[in-house]
Amino acid sequence: MGTVSDAEKKPAVIFVLGGPGSGKGTQCANIVEHFGYTHLSAGDLLRAEIKSGSENGTMIQNMIKEGKIVPSEVTIKLLQKAMQESGNDKFLIDGFPRNEENRAAFEAVTKIEPAFVLFFNCPEEEMERRILSRNQGREDDNIETIRKRFNVFLESSLPVVEYYDSKGKVRKIDAAKSVEEVFEAVKAIFTPKEEKVKHHSHAIL
Ligand SMILES: Nc1ncnc2c1ncn2[C@@H]1O[C@H](COP(=O)(O)OP(=O)(O)OP(=O)(O)O)[C@@H](O)[C@H]1O
Ligand SMILES: Nc1ccn([C@@H]2O[C@H](COP(=O)(O)O)[C@@H](O)[C@H]2O)c(=O)n1
Ligand SMILES: [Mg+2]
After folding, report:
1. Do 140 and 153 touch, CB atoms closer than 8 A?
2. Residue of 88, 86, 79, 85 lying closest to 109 (CA atoms)
3. Ligand nearest to the CA of 140
4. Is the Cβ–Cβ distance between 47 and 41 less than 8 Å?
5. What is the pLDDT of residues 55-101, one digit of tens each?
6. Ligand nearest to the CA of 160
7. What is the distance in A from the centroid of ligand 1 to the CA of 164?
8. Which of 19, 55, 103, 202 lies at a 20 to 30 A Cα distance from 152?
9. What is the ipTM of this complex?
10. What is the Å distance from ligand 3's center to 54 Cα?
11. Could you report how far apart the first and last alpha carbons of the chain are, in Å?
12. What InterPro entries does the record tag this protein with (predicted)?
């Protein structure tokens, strides 16, 4: 049997999903700091594409204002470019896949299966409160677009989470707690088993 060279090795990918405002970006920043992943937010990449003056800019801007999902082809190209440019081989892909089309196209184009899906579960009222006090000047952080984003999340994104759940790949986190408490739960998922045993035995000794 042939061996796989480093150049042929597929990168490790974790999809980070959850409703709008559930805290995906906040927790990804913590994971990057502690575990050496590169964080790629599909929404951030799309917003950067608008700013760059690309030919797709107006289409993307209109979709984001309406809370709609941009065609996979566009988003996947941005993700692939960012992955290549990062020089890393482990990624947190935040806010993607957002629908079945995103999921199937990413798998077909990249042949990458996620190691697992980190899913931030948060009640809608809490997500709404967080988004309305975010103050980052996002054009979609207004109550009208927020409602549309929640509908898209329920109708198109949750089925993707259910798909991965049926494959035993979802790690669900209670995201309604404080940033620190949520990160404790996240850390428990990212800490290798041997480390947990080490810490546990130190605590006993
Ligand atoms: N556990 C938490 N408790 C309270 N506020 C939080 C918590 N996590 C994040 N926030 C705040 O809520 C807002 C939304 O968080 P964040 O941007 O990380 O969410 P997101 O899931 O990436 O949202 P979006 O899908 O809209 O990009 C931010 O202002 C952030 O500081
Ligand atoms: N896979 C994706 C991800 C995002 N979008 C669009 O961007 C908006 C903002 O996304 P955030 O993750 O930053 O909240 C989202 O509402 C979509 O309009 C997308 O099309 N495809
Ligand atoms: Mg975000």
Report:
1. no
2. 79
3. 2
4. no
5. 999 999 999 999 999 999 999 999 999 999 999 999 999 999 999 99
6. 2
7. 23
8. 55
9. 0.99
10. 22
11. 45
12. Adenylat/UMP-CMP_kin (IPR000850), Adenylat_kinase_CS (IPR033690), P-loop_NTPase (IPR027417), UMP_CMP_kinase (IPR006266)
